[in-house]
Each structure stands twice: as C-alpha cells, then as structure tokens.
Amino acid sequence: MRRLNGRGFGGVSPASGRSEPIVIIQTMKEKIMSFGLNRAEVIGRLGADVTVNHLASGGRVASLSVATDESYIDRSGSGERIDKTEWHKVVTFQDGLIDMLEKHAKRGRLVYVAGKMQTRRWRKDGEDSDRFSTEILLVPGGRVQFLDKPNGANGKSAPAQPGPDAAGDTGAMPAGGDPADSEIPF
Q: Which end of the chain has fewer CB atoms surrounding its CB within 10 Å, N or C?
C-alpha cells in the first residue's frame, strides 16, 4: 500500500504548516489479499447423473459428483505408477441451471465447473456430534461447461444401453451408492 500526497508524504506541510490529506492507493493484489478469494475450478467426469432434490421451502437443489484423477510415480522405492481419484461434490440452487443439468448432466460426461467452496455443518437426529460437508457451490457468476459431446450428438440417436459383458457386469453404479465406492467411469 502506498501513501501519496504532493510530495509522497502525509502529515504537516513544512511550507504551509497545515495538515495535508493522506491518499491511500491500493493495488488489485492488495485488495484481493485484504478481502480474500474463494474460487474453485474443476475439470473431471461426472460419476453419476445429476440428483435433484426438492426442499421443504419449495426450492430445488441439484447435486453432482465430479471425479478428477492424477497419477504419479512412487519415489519411496517401488517406482510404481500410482493413480489417485478425488471426488468433488458440486451443488446449485439456481432453477435455470438445474433445468439444464437435468437435460445434459449424465454419468461419464467431461465437465468444467467453476464456483466457490462452501462447508456446511449439520447434525443428524439422535447424534451428539456435528457433521461437515465441503462442496463447490455454483452461484450466479459460476460456470458449468460440458467439454465433450453427449451421446446422440449431430442428430444421431443415442446408442442403446449395453447389455452385460462376458463377466455379467453392466458397468452401472449401484443404486443409492456413493460414486467413490464404484468404479471410475472413465
């Protein structure tokens, strides 16, 4: 932060003997540092179709599970490649965005999400301790962009659901299951 007046100082002017105002110029970096910045950006694949719940207040909330993955070489001696998947919960209360997500947010789609981090605290009935959930909240000014084409793009019909493979696995996530417990959709 810099203080400026005619000579670069504030206080009493030697020439006039009067006090001079101190003008404070704040740079953008200083402004961000003083107020903080809460922004989260994720590119990953949807672990399940969007879930829309109705609230007691009459509103709706949409929830997405986005998986990001990374890999690295274990340098502790084995030299193995380690693959790690991180799951991110994304929520929004915006009706127009919820309508769009219901149409387009399907399991396996590649998506870019920009919002803000939020941690909620709640308590289940009959429990003495609080629970916490950290999620990316899509607020006005946030963004959702699909980075791939949906099945059936370009006027073609979507392929039929695949049948079980030779092992009898349909590849579907168990109903009501946590995306973290199922296989990665990519």
A: N
